[in-house]
Amino acid sequence: MRRMLLGEMVLDHQRAFRGILTLVFMLLVVSNGWYVYSRSLSLSDQYAHHAVAGLRQHFEKISGFIDTIQAEAVRELQWGEPPRDVDGQLSALRNAPGSNYFSLDQLPPPLSHQQIGNLTGLVLPGKPEASRQREMAVALGLAPMLTAAYRNLDDHGVAWVYYMSGQQFIYLYPFAPAADYHYSLATPSGVFWRMAQPEANPAGKRFMTPVYIDQAGKGAMLTIGQPIVAGGRFYGALYMDVGISTLHQLLGSSGEVLGKLYLLNAQNQIVAANTEEAVPQENLLRLPVMADYRAGPTAHVKVFAVGDSGMRVLHYLPNEVLALEIVKGTAPGIVAALLLWLALSLLNRTWVLNRELRRLSEHDALTGALNHRAFQAVLSQLYQGYRETGQVFALVMVDLDHFKRINDTFGHAVGDEVLKVLVRLARRMLRNQDLVARLGGEEFVLVLPATELRDAMKAAVRLRLQLERLNWAKLGLPGKVTASMGCAVVLASDSKAGAVLKRADDAMYRAKQEGRNRVCVDLQGQPPGVE
């Protein structure tokens, strides 16, 4: 029998093949989609981390200067003597005509306002207290450090650096004329001062104010404040005002980030963003810091911490944006999967056509039995196998009795149906490995691999008996249809494959001569006891 390759066996099971092909296609699409989804989320997370890292570095640099100046201010207030080199600046303080404040609008040479900012405060009745004078000297002594901090932090969006005292004065850099800004009775009502008070901030922690509009015209900003406490006493606070526009630029520096980034302060207020769109849901502003993205019905959300000031970055990634990335990312994979689908479908279709052509070339068109050429190929393989392995096989020649009379009396159409019935019956009664071949006309041969002569004879007898018992009246035949059969088994003396067929044919002719409707066996291969 013809050997089948693995691919042929797979393609022979069409339903299973189509199911596996569909499953493979779906697995390719799903796995590719999951990979693109994970990759898009990971890349977006990296870009968001990059923006957050920029913000952290931004505020860490500001905090570094605040730490240095704070330490120097505490040391001077707690242990140091008032700086001697600021006496000239203190003596230059002048009361504004017709007002209740003083300022340092005029500096003694060789100082300039590029080096020294302005110090303004309320004019108090009587002679200023020594402690107030000393604290103002400390504030002026910090001027070089405040100036250096401003110049180093100018590119970080720092608009003002200043020290404000509980003794009703403020030192401000860069210089602003007192007419533009000065300490007033309303100054302590500002949120930046209230948040520094021991009542609101007993631990003296650094804080950050909500966003507000600068009174000196430098736009929207927030203030980072550090209370100054020395020897257990609250003196005032050191401040740096940070422009919001710089924070917007930092968030927008990671252009590849998917979705929207919002910088939130401790008061859940949006400080800056890389978009002009508002947060889609207000409840998102109250989300805590989280390690992973939280998937919702409309978006993926993650919150990053920025330092220890309570500031956070909210990354809002709409699902439709992520879906679009998945579509763009999976498009090549889907195209490849479709091409694979088409290629395999074409292969399957080609195989089906080839198999049908092969079937037509190997089978009898009327009955579906093997044709003479295919039978000769099978016979040759069986004979070769017998020579190599000793595996015997048997042949049963079948010839319908008086078939010409059926054709002449009832027509060829009825005769064709008789032939079909014979083949269907033989296939139903034989084993799966057995074959039926039509040699021509009403002559057929049963091919029985791995079968001894005794078993071949039994199979032939069962077929003969069942054939004559069929209800042939359904085809319009008045009597029964019978067949004469001859059985032969391959022998060691057979010099060629055709020898087996010749002996089976001879046995079949003896059945004809002995009266038809019977089974005869080849005398050479007849086992003992068989007559």
How does this model look, in words?
It contains 13 helices and 19 strands. The longest helix has 65 residues, at 14-78. The protein has a domain at 372-521: Alpha-Beta Plaits (2-Layer Sandwich). By secondary structure, it is an alpha+beta fold. Strand 18 (483-489), helix 13 and strand 19 (519-521) form a beta-alpha-beta unit. It starts with 5 loop residues before the first helix and ends in a 10-residue tail after the last strand. Helices cover 44% and strands 20% of the residues. Strands 1, 2, 3, 4, 5, 6, 7, 8 and 9 form a nine-stranded antiparallel sheet that branches. Mean pLDDT is 88; it is low at 1-7. Helix 2 runs antiparallel to helix 8.
Ordered list of secondary-structure elements with their pairings:
Elements: H1 6-12, H2 14-78, H3 87-91, E1 94-95, E2 101-103, E3 118-122, H4 130-141, H5 143-153, E4 158-165, E5 169-173, H6 191-194, E6 207-208, E7 212-213, E8 220-230, E9 233-243, H7 244-252, E10 260-264, E11 270-273, E12 294-295, E13 299-306, E14 311-318, H8 319-362, H9 372-389, E15 393-400, H10 403-410, H11 412-429, E16 435-440, E17 443-449, H12 453-469, E18 483-489, H13 498-513, E19 519-521
Parallel strand pairs: 18-19
Antiparallel strand pairs: 1-2, 2-3, 3-5, 4-5, 4-9, 6-8, 7-8, 8-9, 10-11, 10-14, 12-13, 13-14, 15-17, 15-18, 16-17
